């Protein structure tokens, strides 16, 4: 596990170009360690955590909350919910969202009493400009397999996704420069697809299988991500009063 995420103290002045260079260097150092293959036995998968964040502004100060919902993979029952919140010190820079989100994610993870076997993020993983979306970047701090599940498409190098057939489980791969970055997945008939990508230590077919096994009639999103998303809305409303 990596030691600590990149942190700026609240009120610290920063140069955006310097941050971009530092962040790029960190991503470049981590990328060779990404393994798009299973480092676990599927039949041993028990607990899956859904992770999401929400933000709000108060008097020009940005705040955020991270919510994690852990479910039993087999029964789909919730076994634990935790959250963290605080001031956001890293500015929003496209392609470097992980640096903004990691401090709150790790703070929430420390509150867990149940150890997830896998983390599923509301966001991208390998489907990223430099293959280092939040699901991939966070894996090095969590030391667990991760999956990215995005509601909207991140267009890279001008490449559009191909719409899958209108049936549950249909998918098309997202291929850029002859490399598969992720997958457009139709989890429910007559509903918009989602975008699945490996985070780390898992392959794309297994990621797709796990996501589909966490789909019910309530949403196109897998249960862990949907529940984490609902929790962030609830906590943002509560904390921003």
Automatic annotation (TrEMBL):
PANTHER family: ENDONUCLEASE V. Its EC number is 3.1.21.7. It is found in: Cytoplasm. It is an enzyme of class 3 (hydrolase). Keywords: Cytoplasm, DNA damage, DNA repair, Endonuclease, Hydrolase, Magnesium, Metal-binding, Nuclease. Its cofactor is Mg(2+). InterPro entries: Endonuclease-V (IPR007581). This is Endonuclease V. HAMAP family: Endonuclease_5 (MF_00801). GO terms for molecular function: endonuclease activity. CDD domains: Endonuclease_V (cd06559). It catalyses: Endonucleolytic cleavage at apurinic or apyrimidinic sites to products with a 5'-phosphate. It comes from Bacillus kandeliae.
